[in-house]
Amino acid sequence: MDSKKVDVAVIGGGVHGCSTAYHLAQKGFRTALFERDYISSGSSGRSAAGLRYQFGTEVNILLAQYNMKCLKTLGEDLNYPGDLEYDPAGYLWIAYSETQLEQLEKNVRLQNELGTTGSRVLNVREIQEVAPFLNTDGMLGASFNQEDGHINPHTLCFAYADAAKALGVEIHKKTSVTGIITKNGRVAGIHTDKGDWEADAVVCCAGAWSVEVGRWLDLEIPITPERHQIMITEPVERMKHPMTLCLDDGSYWKQCPNGTFMLGVGKEEVKDTSYYASWDYLDSATERILPKMPILSGIRVVRQWTGPYANTPDFQAIVGPTPAEGFYIDCGWSGHGLQFAPSVGRIMAEFVNGEKPFIDVSMFRYSRFEEGELFFEPACI
Amino acid sequence: MRETELLVIGGGPAGLSAALEAASNGCEVVVVDSDLALGGQLIKQTHKFFGSESERAGTRGFEIADILLNELEEMKGRVSVFTNTTAESYYRDTGIVGCMTNEDDYWCIKPRKIVNATGASEKILPFHNNDLPGVYGAGAIQTLMNVYGVVPGKRVLMVGAGNIGLVVSYQLLQAGVDVAAIVEFMPNISGYWVHAAKVRRLGVPVLLKHTIIEALGENKVEGAWIQAVDENNQLTGEPQKIECDTICMAVGLAPTVDLLWQAGCEMLYVPELCGYVAKRDTQMRTSHPDIWAAGDAHGIEEASAAMVEGRIAGLGVAHALDHIDRMKFGEKLGIYWKRLDNLRAGSTGEKIRCGVGKCTCKCWEVD
Ligand SMILES: Cc1cc2nc3c(=O)[nH]c(=O)nc-3n(C[C@H](O)[C@H](O)[C@H](O)COP(=O)(O)OP(=O)(O)OC[C@H]3O[C@@H](n4cnc5c(N)ncnc54)[C@H](O)[C@@H]3O)c2cc1C
Ligand SMILES: Cc1cc2nc3c(=O)[nH]c(=O)nc-3n(C[C@H](O)[C@H](O)[C@H](O)COP(=O)(O)OP(=O)(O)OC[C@H]3O[C@@H](n4cnc5c(N)ncnc54)[C@H](O)[C@@H]3O)c2cc1C
Q1: How far is B104 from chain A (nearest CA, A)?
Q2: Cα of A20 to ligand 1 centre, how many Å?
Q3: Nearest by CB to B93, which of A278, A300, A304?
Q4: CB-CB neighbours of B127 under 10 Å
Q5: Is the CB of B88 inside 8 Å of chain A's CB atoms?
Q6: DSSP state string for B199-258
Q7: CB of A278 within 8 Å of any CB in chain B?
Q8: Domains of chain A
């Protein structure tokens, strides 16, 4: 088989792969990206498309500050002719129990301390101001940040992919990576169903499918894929309503810029990467959401889809070099990784280039599981 | 949740035939159809049908529907019918089908087997202003006139000179509506000669190698621009203005296969059958062991063939559910295939034979 040569091979054309390839090319690496299906076909294109400052651990809050700054002007910065539909409609985390409210207060305190000034705790009257269509019965309080919001996950991926391509990155769609070549104990390239590529480094951005990639190098990447589902309604007139999330029952819903409402619920789900939806999801989502947002009753659901979360034991990502020399990973983003593409794409390029990452992400290291250094992210559904 | 042995989706000639065959062999059947009445395309067809005697040639379409519905009446104990009900989702993990009755009543059903007889949907051409009120599909015009007794306008430009374009033009003329012209992109008329002769006799020009390029009007159709095309299918000559208040698109149908995609059936693009269709075995079973299809949903053909395909699918289901034994199944299957082969014989059936050949396998490795 004829062999092609690049400096770095990136596995996966989700938002992390595309951003990583873009940042690598910016540093002058000859880069090739391999995507089994089409760009954004994995979790990225199936996500709830949410962006937020509101996280509960220091590293995520600091990365989020950088992400949110970038995402605001990303379309222009990448010269993308399409629309990223960036929409800061706000994020409202509502609490019905004292424990949840305490957690939200703790998160906001940490965010404020680290310089995220837009996040605040709201009482019920203030909730009614920012979300007038919400039924606040039984609600104790909420946390809120007006600058959190929405972005189109497809155009977000395309924008990075196109920008990468403009810098000379080879983008191989419909190309499956089937193995990793090693020589003298370090990574030397990849096998694909369209031939082999030589590469000095390989970055795995294969999302929920990373487990298989790790096995090629005898690495146990502790990701449990978990199906998650979303429904979308017909479009209705735009109303004042932020993305609303409820940790008590896992439900979340928002109005997208085109007027449709997105309805989701994080619950016990099938543990695989299958794309099959389930019939009872309609009930589980509407039972939770309609009492909280009665105005939505009667709106028709037009579509339902699924995508996998890449869950790790502490719901935090795995980022950085690995024991296999030349093999880097950026995966395990559970249900919140879309928005981390700007910061982490940059960090992956810094790792490959032997630099110190511009934000310390050592707590995301691969070895933390062996070391027992788990750290849980409290702000996720 | 409601359960049934067989769910038939679509109550056109294919679906009704499948339901009749399965029920007459002892299956318990539920039929759902989006429309207010059963019969599918048949109920709008006032003309006498073509085809062979055994498939009711010479009978008018809506009368064929009545015959099927009368037979269904006799099976009442075994067949439940839900009209105004669209099957709109198939869930692979459980085999459950979600249905919507009357746009606001959502319910689920768990069938053991499914026959997908959802018919076809009309194709539409891209041209300027093709979303103006007054631009119709031929099916919509047939429904307006022949089911509801409403004429669509005063003067119609027909796009497409296949059977549907010709028959609908004739029906418009019968209803006192002017047909300004029939434009046809191809160099020849693909519809039957008799249909073409009828409209020509009434003075309607059939403009071959012509297409529509723009609909005129602000809020509704007030005319159209048409233009000739050359050997390379490029526009040529001066555009010509047609006075009309209605534009009717009769530019072909595509099989309605959404639920088959959802179910993960193996699909193939077969131009002779007018789009994506499910790969099937000789009893109309798709690659999904619980799902059969029949009629236009299995490839655009005719009501006559749809009825036989429906029979075969219903027979296959009855056999899969052990309602009839292997011998009887094989015997009946042979008879139905003879009828299908008859319908598809000769030069007119060549396209269909070729298309069906591309997507039919002898047997799935399921039993
Ligand atoms: C229902 C749902 C809602 C979500 N909501 C949000 C949200 O609101 N906000 C947010 O920030 N995040 C959200 N997420 C999480 C987010 O989608 C993911 O964290 C993020 O998209 C991960 O991006 P990725 O590039 O790592 O992975 P992916 O987008 O999954 O990309 C991995 C790609 O790798 C490809 N691939 C895998 N193996 C191979 C191989 N061997 N060869 C070639 N290609 C391969 C796959 O085809 C895939 O395209 C949500 C996720 C889901 C499922
Ligand atoms: C103008 C015209 C003239 C024709 N002339 C002849 C002729 O002379 N001879 C001849 O043999 N054939 C003729 N045909 C063709 C014939 O009408 C069709 O081939 C035949 O009706 C196909 O039958 P079917 O049961 O597959 O589909 P259909 O008759 O289209 O029935 C499908 C049914 O499924 C329902 N449905 C679809 N999706 C769903 C869903 N998701 N849930 C519930 N219900 C659903 C629809 O409402 C419809 O009632 C003609 C067609 C036209 C338009």
Answers
A1: 8
A2: 14
A3: A278
A4: 18
A5: no
A6: HHHTT--EEETEEEEEEE-SSS--EEEEEEE-TTS-EEEEEEEE--SEEEE---EEE--H
A7: yes
A8: 3-48+154-223+313-371 (3.50.50.60), 87-149+225-309 (3.30.9.10)
**CATH topology match: B2-121+253-359 vs B124-249:** yes
Query: What DSSP string describes A244-275?
Result: EEETTTTEEEEE-TTSPEEEEE--S--SS---
Report the CATH number of the B124-249 domain.
Answer: 3.50.50.60
pLDDT in tens, chain A (381 residues): 456 999 999 999 999 999 999 999 999 999 999 999 999 999 999 999 999 999 999 999 999 999 999 999 999 999 999 999 999 999 999 999 999 999 999 999 999 999 999 999 999 999 999 999 999 999 999 999 999 999 999 999 999 999 999 999 999 999 999 999 999 999 999 999 999 999 999 999 999 999 999 999 999 999 999 999 999 999 999 999 999 999 899 999 999 999 999 999 988 899 999 888 999 999 999 999 999 999 999 999 999 999 999 999 999 999 999 999 999 999 999 999 999 999 999 999 999 999 999 999 999 999 999 999 999 999 888
> Of all residues in chain B, what percent are helix, strand and coil, respectively (each to 5)?
35, 30, 35
Picking from A279, A282, A304, the nearest residue to B94 by CB comes out as A279
Domain boundaries, chain B: 2-121+253-359, 124-249
Check if B98 contacts A (Cβ < 8 Å): yes
Residues A32-63: b if buried by 16+ CB within 10 A, e if exposed: bbbbbeebbbbbbbbbbbbbbbbbbbebbbbb
Is B92's Cβ below 8 Å from some Cβ in A? yes
pTM of the predicted model, to two decimals?
0.87
ipTM higher than 0.90?
Answer: no
Q: Which of A276, A300, A304 sits opposite B92 (nearest CB)?
A: A276
Q: Does the structural domain B2-121+253-359 have CATH classification 3.30.590.10?
A: no
The pocket around ligand 1, CB under 6 angstroms, is made up of A 11-17, 34-37, 41-44, 46-50, 176-177, 205-209, 228, 230, 307-309, 331, 333, 335-339
- CA B40 – ligand 2 centroid, Å: 5
What chain A residue is nearest to B110 in terms of C-alpha separation?
A279
